[in-house]
Amino acid sequence: MADDGDVGGFAGRIGARLDEGEDGTATLVFEVRDEHLNPAGTLHGGVVATLVDTAMGQAVRTTTEDGEVPATSQLTVTYLRPGEPGPLQVRGRVRTRGRHLTICEADVEQDGRSVAHAVATFAILDRR
């Protein structure tokens, strides 16, 4: 896991940063800007999906060994209220870690209010 907060990939390109990650958990911070909004002026659902997927993937990475790579195999996002411009936090956590499959959850909060909840299954691939 990157020590400088860089999550890399697409999530890094849109501005997501790793705040902390250890022991099956990870927290991302993100600043919602105008380019992240949909035509209705609220946070685009695809951005939320990217953030929860990334937070959960980072949480899984805290449990993997050298050569193991988590890959999303299923993702369900429940949108609870519209996100708005400004800071938000995404907390991902491993619920059940198996040898080949891992179940995770994530919550997105902004100003102390829930924006979304997600559940995902990650396959653990062997890249040795």
UniProtKB/TrEMBL annotation:
Keywords: Hydrolase. Residues 41-114 form the Thioesterase domain. Gene3D superfamilies: Hotdog Thioesterase (3.10.129.10). The keyword Hydrolase applies. The keyword Hydrolase applies. It comes from the Bacteria. GO terms for molecular function: fatty acyl-CoA hydrolase activity. Belongs to the thioesterase PaaI family. This is Uncharacterized domain 1-containing protein. It comes from Geodermatophilus obscurus.
